[in-house]
Every structure is written in C-alpha cells, then in structure tokens.
Amino acid sequence: MKTLDSERTREILRKVRQIEIRTRRLVTDSLTGAYHSSFKGQGMDFDEVREYSPGDDVRSIDWNVTARIGTPFIKKFREERELTILLAVDLSASGNFSSNDQTIRELAAEIASVLAFSATRNDDKVGVLLFTDKVEKFIRPEKGRHHILRLIREVLFYEPEGKGTDTPGALQYLNQIQRRKAIIFLLSDFLPGKQEREGELFHMLGLTNRRHDLSCIILADPREIELPDIGWITLEDAESGEQVKVNTGNPKFRKAFAEANRKRVEDLEGELRQRGIDYVHATTDTPYMHALRTYFNLRNRRR
Fold it and tell me: CA-CA distance, 49 to 51, in Å (whole number)?
C-alpha cells in the first residue's frame, strides 16, 4: 500500500512539474503585459503632489498645497493594482473525456496554470473553486509559486464526489463568499448537465458578471463537436451513465449531430454577448495560446 501511495505521489508531482515547466515557458513578457493591461485595478490611490506643468488637468490641482506654497501643485494618483483572480473549474465527469492525448480536465489545468502564473507575475492573488453538481472545494486566494502549484495539483488530481454539473450553484457560492470584486474565469465544457437547474445558468452568469468581472473559457474535445465515420458505436453520457448506440456511418446522423452542437455553441455565445461576458474557446487538439492572446488584446483595446 505504501509503495502504491508513494508511486502515485511521484506521478502527481511529475505531472504538476510538467505543467509548470510548459506553462511558465508560455507565460512570456508579452502575455504578462497583455494580462496586466486587460484588467482594471480596484480603484485609485493617492501617490504624491508635484508642481503644475502646462497641459496638466486643472481639476487635479491641490488647492491646499497651492495656497501654502504659492505656486500651483497637482495631485498624482496611481491605480490600485492588486487583483483577486478566481478560477472556477468544472470537474464534472464529462471533463474526463478525450479522443486524443489530452482530456478536457487536463486542458483546464493547463489554462488555469497559465492564468495563475500570469497573475502571480503581476503580484495578484489567485484562488480556485472546484465544482460538479455541488461545490467540491474552495481554496482561498493567495500569492506565491507554492500556492499556484497546489492549485494545479488540485485541478488535476482532486477526486470529486459528484459527477453532474451545477454551474449556477457554484457561481452563487462564489457571489456569497467573495464580497470584494474579483476577476473570475469559469472553465467548463458548458455541456447541459442533468442536475443543472434549467433556465438559471444564464441568469446567474449575468448576475456574477455584474458583481465581478467574469470570463468564460469554453472547453471542448473535437469529438464532442463532430463525429467521424467509424460505423456503429455506443455513446455514453459520463454524468448520467445513459448509453445509446448510433450509426456514425449515416451521413444524415453525423450532419444532425454537428448541427445540434453548432447551434448549442452559437446559443451559448449569443447569451454571453447579450450579458457582456467575454469568452474564449479552447479545444484539446489545438494550441490555446493564440486564443488567450486574442482575448487579452480585445479586452485591452476596449479599455
């Protein structure tokens, strides 16, 4: 038993270290700069006063100092930079699916790692919420490399009790526990869960975005979007265990399957845009860094 436990511990540490090396290499100065400029601080702090120069905003004049010294002085402020980043990660059973070398859950861990290391290079705090059809675990925001490695380990290897999905419940929990405004990244495949309360998801997404700054990372495996022509196969709902046999050799079925998924994604995007929520698509078969850079650049241009 001790040998098995020690082997599992070594395997966990090895995988966490692999992700750290891979993602820290991706977190370049350009990505860190894009991250830094994409999110506003919590307010403005007074920095200092300095002598007025032509072109300065007269509304910034400090009249008390000006009257005391006899020449105009202005107040300077700096943005309060320290932010709180929360990573809400869907650990429902559908995240264990993979048609290639990487599962959706492993993809979530990599992207969470990139976001966390970008945040820590800006001296921001990072926390994690793991959820299924219940809140599984909440790790409060902190700073530092060891804390980030712990977060990666939990996203990769935490064994959830639930299999289903209750995203509204997870967001409600975050809204209750996180009083101060935070940057929230919701990482999920956004597949409709059996236990997810119908009609409540988009309401709760909008409410969370009004209280915080919410972005959605939409994760997918290519076989969840389109099916190959491989004849009769059995599809199983990972969350409910329900099985159905389908003939992928039927082009009409494959077309209907792809069309249904295309519409599901379009409807999701439309609901997110309507509520002013930013989103990113990431799939297990394509590099995700271009999508992240595009996301940060779009936010930066809006600012």
Answer: 7
75 has pLDDT over 50: yes
β-bridge mates for residue 78, sequence order:
45
- Which regions of the chain does DSSP assign to beta strands (E)? 43-51, 73-80, 84-90, 125-131, 135-142, 183-188, 213-220, 232-236, 243-247, 278-283
Nearest in space to 44 (alpha carbons), one of 12, 76, 6: 76
Q: Are 158 and 137 in contact (CB under 8 A)?
A: yes
- What is the DSSP annotation of 208-249? HHHHSEEEEEEEE-GGGT---S-SEEEEE-TTT--EEEEETT
Give the pLDDT mean for 164-192: 93
Which strands make up the sheet holding 183-188, listed edge to edge?
Answer: 135-142, 125-131, 84-90, 183-188, 213-220, 278-283
Report how far residue 192's alpha carbon sits from residue 275's, in angstroms, rounded to the nearest whole number. 19
**For residue range 1-32, what is the model confidence (pLDDT) as tens digits?**
445 566 766 777 777 777 777 777 777 766 77
High-pLDDT (> 70) share of the chain, %: 88
192: DSSP letter: P
C-alpha 191/C-alpha 279 separation (Å) is 15
**Which domains does the chain show, CATH number per domain?**
2-37+82-219+279-302 (3.40.50), 43-80 (no CATH)
**What pTM was computed for the model?**
0.80
